[in-house]
Amino acid sequence: MDVLNLKDKNIVVMGVANERSIAWGAAKKLLEVGANVIFTYRKDRSKAKIEKLLEDYKEKKTAVIQCDVNSDESIQTAFGQIGEQFGVIHGIVHSVAFAHAEDLKNRFVETSREGFAFALDTSAYSLIAVTRAARPFMTEGGSIVTMSYLGAERVLEGYNVMGVAKAALEASVRYLAADLGKEGIRVNAISAGAIRTLAAKGVPSFNEALHRYEEVSPLKRNTNKEEVGDMTVVLLSDLSRGVTGETVYVDSGYHIMG
């Protein structure tokens, strides 16, 4: 019996920038368990990197579709294309976040109005916009998983406006879960530990955080994109059919420590 029940399911993965991306950890696992994976990208350089990563998965059913999450029109077009090509969407991995570099480097009190709006639009509102566009094609229910971080609930040096955006993202998960539960659609977040990704490079205190995880977490080590990928697959699968509106921590237990 396939306990995951993800074989031949159509899963949209948003936010693969390169092979280090958390989203790629999830996508790789989804391909291994037999899901059809639809990738979205914003810039052409990301498209080229995704296509290169997929060279090892030529026998799998995949698609790569342009989608700018800052544009409702682009989101509608992308999901219209996905719906046309695949019919039903069974799941979404939303791993999209961005803030201007100066809003991470400066003190939080110096965050600009434009920088605040941009970070929240890209990192939190995009989940709502994507869910709305995908909903007409999620006719069999399904599962949506987004990526958060501990900075949503604690002050982490250099995380600044992104912490506020992640807090908004986690609240959005709860409200979307309440909204869509009656349609059989579940919405959850994964709060991942410190992982070396392209996005992490933009956080000034990131290297310090890596060492702290090794010292402080119960498991005395960092997590990795494979562990986050495994949990993403669980949350997309029937194994978690009773779980919605949750933030699940995959951080070697770091968040429980004082």
UniProtKB/TrEMBL annotation:
It is an enzyme of class 1 (oxidoreductase). Substrate binds at A99. It catalyses: a 2,3-saturated acyl-[ACP] + NAD(+) = a (2E)-enoyl-[ACP] + NADH + H(+). The keyword Oxidoreductase applies. GO terms for molecular function: enoyl-[acyl-carrier-protein] reductase (NADH) activity. The gene is fabI. GO terms for biological process: fatty acid biosynthetic process. The keyword NAD applies. The active site is at Y149 (proton acceptor), Y159 (proton acceptor). Keywords: Fatty acid biosynthesis, Fatty acid metabolism, Lipid biosynthesis, Lipid metabolism, NAD, Oxidoreductase. This is Enoyl-[acyl-carrier-protein] reductase [NADH]. Pathway: Lipid metabolism. It comes from Ureibacillus terrenus. Its EC number is 1.3.1.9. NAD(+) binds at G15, S21, I22, D68, V69, V96, K166, I195, R196, T197, L198, A199. InterPro entries: Enoyl-ACP_Rdtase_NADH, NAD(P)-bd_dom_sf, SDR_fam. Belongs to the short-chain dehydrogenases/reductases (SDR) family. FabI subfamily.
